[in-house]
């Protein structure tokens, strides 16, 4: 097998500088406030709930367990063993008792349920005494879906929190130690969706974000690949790369892709972004950026951004487009492809 020729000094210099930038941590980025790319770079589409908003969502939660479908109850009528026994609450919150027939008990706490049964039996007995115990809790449940070890339904006997639900779902699996989860959302009823910053909750131990859960909440933890940028063209490892934090810059992404190849035209890198009301392509001279140290165009990246590094001398965008997955072919419109190839 033939060995590859040595890289050009310019490529070595660029790779070394990219390595240093990645190893020394994030650096302040000069922002041109008149540049729409810069303004969009610092925008977030995720309205994370702050502690004050979380308190508002918790204000109307009940802190008593309410009987519901699937619960197993023990109804004891004092000194009347033939009327006492275990009863499973039906799907519509009903149970059936001797002499009383079927009636609704769902939505009540134990005290209210005992009072109702006592009142119903008064038509047959003088001063009946009723005790209701919950043997098996099934109604108080949340659904944990997405990237957890054991997705599914979790049952609680008392008020539950997000951290408890994640722990009972087996925690957050780590398939790649370089990737960590940064967000989840909670669907509550038909009109509420609550975004939680898992980075602050789990890694920075901000327990004010550990929201209390309501019955039937749906917790969804997206896959890491749900937030990704795409680095294509003349880089060592073209493909998609996860946005692990909100601080991934263009140079970070190029470094993750192995840096430019020796054939890269690093003076005409294209950053492609979906924008509604403005042009979505920015041409960036990385050579000038590294030579001057001016990082004003080292934009912070958003989900689905595309970085394309062309080959020297030819416009080969269509060739690289054929190498990537169908999602990317759909994402890049013909107009953006045309604009990205302009000199």
Q: What do these coordinates show?
A:
With 343 residues, the protein is of the alpha+beta class. It folds into 3 domains: 9-44 and 246-340, Outer membrane lipoprotein wza fold like; 51-61 and 140-225, Roll (Outer membrane lipoprotein wza fold like); 72-136, wza like domain (wza like fold). It contains 11 helices and 15 strands. The strands form 4 sheets. A 5-stranded mixed β-sheet has the order 7-6-10-8-9. Strands 12-11-15-13-14 form a 5-stranded mixed β-sheet, with helices on both faces. Helix 1 packs across helix 7 (250-256). It is rod-shaped. Residues 1-11, 21-33, 39-44 and 319-343 have low confidence and may be disordered.
**What low-confidence regions span 5 or more consecutive residues with pLDDT below 50?**
1-11, 21-33, 39-44, 319-343
User: CATH class of the largest domain, anyone?
Assistant: Alpha Beta
Give the SSE order as H and E letters: HHHEEEEHEEEHEEHEEEHEEHEHHH
Shape field: rod-shaped
Walk across the major sheet and give the strand order. Answer: 7-6-10-8-9
Oligomer: single chain
Quick recap of the structure?
This protein has helices at 9-23, 36-41, 51-58, 110-121, 162-168, 198-203, 250-256, 286-292, 317-321, 326-331, 334-340; strands at residues 72-77, 85-88, 94-97, 101-104, 130-136, 141-146, 152-155, 183-188, 192-197, 218-221, 228-233, 239-242, 269-272, 281-284, 306-309.
């Amino acid at each position: 097998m033939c060995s590859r020729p040595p890289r050009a000094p310019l490529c070595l210099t660029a790779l070394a500088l990219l390595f240093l930038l990645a190893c020394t941590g994030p650096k302040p980025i000069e922002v041109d406030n008149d540049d729409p790319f810069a303004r969009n770079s610092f925008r977030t589409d995720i309205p994370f709930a702050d502690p004050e908003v979380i308190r508002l969502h918790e204000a109307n939660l009940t802190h008593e367990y309410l009987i519901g479908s699937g619960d197993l109850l023990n109804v004891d009528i004092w000194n009347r063993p033939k009327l006492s026994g275990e009863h499973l609450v039906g799907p519509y919150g009903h149970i059936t008792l001797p002499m009383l027939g079927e009636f609704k008990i769902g939505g009540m706490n134990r005290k209210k349920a005992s009072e109702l049964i006592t009142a119903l039996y008064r038509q047959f007995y003088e001063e009946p005494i009723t005790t209701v115990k919950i043997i098996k809790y099934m109604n108080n449940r949340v659904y944990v879906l997405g990237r957890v070890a054991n997705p599914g339904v979790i049952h609680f006997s008392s008020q539950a929190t997000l951290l408890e639900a994640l722990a009972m779902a087996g925690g957050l699996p780590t398939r790649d130690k370089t990737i960590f989860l940064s967000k989840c959302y909670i669907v509550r009823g038909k009109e509420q969706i609550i975004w939680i910053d898992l980075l602050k909750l789990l890694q920075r131990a901000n327990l004010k974000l550990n929201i209390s859960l309501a019955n039937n909440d749906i917790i969804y933890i997206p896959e890491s690949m749900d937030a990704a940028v795409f680095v294509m063209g003349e880089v060592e490892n073209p493909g998609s790369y996860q946005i692990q934090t909100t601080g991934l810059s263009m140079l970070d992404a190029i470094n993750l892709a192995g840096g430019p190849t020796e054939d890269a035209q690093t003076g005409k890198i294209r950053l492609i972004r979906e924008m509604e009301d403005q042009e979505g392509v920015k041409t960036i001279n990385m050579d000038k950026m590294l030579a001057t140290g001016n990082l004003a165009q080292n934009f912070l990246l958003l989900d689905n951004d595309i970085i394309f590094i062309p080959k020297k001398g030819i416009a080969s965008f269509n060739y690289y487009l054929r190498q990537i997955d169908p999602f990317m072919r759909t994402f890049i419109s013909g107009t953006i492809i045309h604009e990205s190839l302009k000199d």
